[in-house]
Design goal:
The protein is α+β, with helices and mostly antiparallel strands and 513 residues long. It is 28% helix and 20% strand. Strand 6 and strand 7 form a beta hairpin. It is globular, with a radius of gyration of 25 Å. Belongs to the bacterial solute-binding protein 5 family. One of its GO terms (molecular function) is peptide transmembrane transporter activity. InterPro entries: Peptide/Ni-bd, SBP_5, SBP_5_dom.
């Protein structure tokens, strides 16, 4: 009996200590949503169609993972410079064909060491990716060789500005050797970043867990819950009610609800510089669209300002040239087909369509695309073009329109941040990819421009290429957009620049004020 009483006393003391410990821990760690909490709750309106970035043709995968879970050799700064990441430095041979890259010591989230073998493996894999943002900057790579555990030599078939700048993009994201042949592929990502791939609830959220063995500065937040919230009205509501700390990007209906937050002292509204071109693209497989007069008529029918107002809440700049980064030196106000209904009708008549024509338009049912579809349908109808619309979810759209050698569309709309150098008939980006449309002049621009060293000559050559694409009207630029985001005003360290739509959680923390 005494033994039992003694044991009971020990249990009671232990329970009491546990309760005190729990209370102290609770007091020391603020709940999510409170200043000081080490859990960040964020959202984005899009979800990836897969975690296999070699096969996923969308940018949604990179939003959550790039720089957070997966790291590239370098990262691109707001000024366009390369900053060391997994690589410490590189040198280039005088002929511009050989890059020697020195690597830092790091550890993958599965505990394996990061070495030159992983770089060789990843670059060769990335070169085969469906997404041109990954594969295009590596298209001129002829070999990647490891020279010891911490040095890699990359050989190119020709000098390339695109490869050099691509060193600081997802094109050089690194996964461990053998990853794409493992059972993990498509299910989880294994990187070297400050966060590891945590609990994933399909269509709901992904949890990012701070990685204790990260080689660099440790993030403030121990956990990030990244929610996939396509209903942007619900997103705004969740932010107002304290269920979210940050809305990384608003792409659809939510942009119309941003204005009140601009004057609300509890929140900060941020706009990243425009790095995306929003444009129509026409199918080269359509017999009707082979006639440039029809393509020109479509271009003349477009009034950009109402589209910007309806689709992105006015947070965009009208443009006729496909230049994703608005600050590029070759950006211009060149616009050979400015809005003109009379000219559009006249061109259709000359092309033999005085009584009009019908075009198939399988549009995306997310972000700005439903609203832009409605405006575009009305504008095209005004010149005699009937649009046969069918809404597609992003997975179906990628499969049937974007990442296929047999696309099923005639006219479409996308917002993309790939450089024009990523297009071309050898690439995978519509309307030129998969050998569907091979424009000899455009192909020569892609090859020659990429090798130009002089900044002045490069700007002139890129401007000539951009103007040529505009003239051909297979791609009809609508606007460059600035996606708004909203955060708790007490959060600091939000990135002011994006490379590829990423939500960079590395430096976010609570303000000390």
């Amino acid at each position: 009996m005494k033994k039992s009483l003694k044991l009971s006393g020990i249990i009671a003391i232990a329970l009491s200590a546990a309760l005190v410990s729990s209370t102290l821990a609770s007091a020391a760690t603020p709940a999510p949503g409170q200043v000081g909490s080490t859990t960040l709750r964020a959202s984005h309106p899009q979800k990836p169609t897969s975690w296999n970035y070699l096969q996923d043709g969308t940018s949604a995968l990179y939003v959550t993972t790039y720089l957070n879970i997966l790291e590239s050799l370098f990262e691109t700064t707001a000024t366009g410079d390369l900053k060391p990441l997994l690589a410490k430095q590189f040198t280039v041979s005088k002929n511009g064909l050989t890059y020697t890259i020195w690597l830092r010591k790091a550890t993958f989230h599965d505990g394996s060491p990061f070495t030159s073998a992983d770089v060789v493996y990843s670059l060769l894999k990335n070169k085969t990716a469906l997404n041109g943002i990954l594969s295009a900057p590596l298209s001129m790579v002829t070999s990647v060789k490891a020279v010891g555990p911490s040095r890699v030599v990359v050989t190119l078939s020709r000098p390339s500005n695109q490869f050099a700048s691509g060193l600081g993009t997802p094109a050089t994201m690194i996964s461990p050797s053998g990853y794409f042949e493992s059972d993990d592929v498509g299910k989880k990502l294994i990187g070297t970043g400050p966060f590891s791939f945590g609990a994933f609830r399909p269509d709901v959220d992904l949890t990012l867990d701070a990685y204790p063995k990260y080689w660099g500065a440790k993030p403030f937040f121990k956990k990030v819950i990244h929610s996939f919230m396509s209903d942007e009205s619900a997103t705004i509501s969740a932010l107002k009610t304290g269920q979210l700390d940050i809305v990384g990007m608003l792409l659809g209906a939510g942009v119309d609800q941003v204005k009140p937050f601009l004057s609300d002292s509890k929140y900060s509204v941020f706009f990243n510089p425009a790095t995306s071109a929003s444009y129509l693209f026409l199918s080269p497989t359509s017999k009707v669209l082979q006639d440039i007069k029809v393509r020109q008529a479509i271009a003349y029918a477009i009034d950009r300002k109402p589209i910007i107002t309806a689709a992105v809440g006015g947070y965009g700049k009208p443009s006729c040239v496909v230049v994703p980064t608005w600050t590029s030196t070759w950006n211009s106000d060149y616009c050979p087909y400015a809005y003109n209904v009379a000219k559009a009708k006249a061109l259709l008549k000359e092309a033999g369509f005085a009584n009009g024509l019908t075009l198939d338009f399988p549009y995306l049912t997310l972000a700005e695309f439903p609203a832009s579809f409605e405006i575009l349908t009305a504008q095209l109808a005004a010149v005699g073009i009937t649009v046969k619309g069918r809404g597609l979810d992003i997975g179906t759209w990628v499969q049937k329109v974007w990442s296929t050698a047999t696309p099923d569309y005639e006219i479409n709309h996308i917002t993309n941040n790939a450089s024009l150098l990523s297009y071309g008939c050898k690439g995978t980006t519509p309307p030129y990819g998969y050998g569907i449309l091979c424009d000899p002049l455009f192909e020569s621009y892609i090859t020659k421009n990429d090798q130009i060293v002089s900044p002045e000559k490069y700007t002139a050559a890129m401007k000539a290429m951009t103007n040529h694409i505009t003239d051909e009207a297979w791609m009809i630029e609508l606007f460059s957009k600035n996606e708004p985001g909203i955060a708790n005003v007490k959060l600091t360290g939000l990135a002011k620049y994006r490379t590829d739509y990423e939500m960079d959680y590395r430096n976010i923390k609570w303000s000390a004020k």
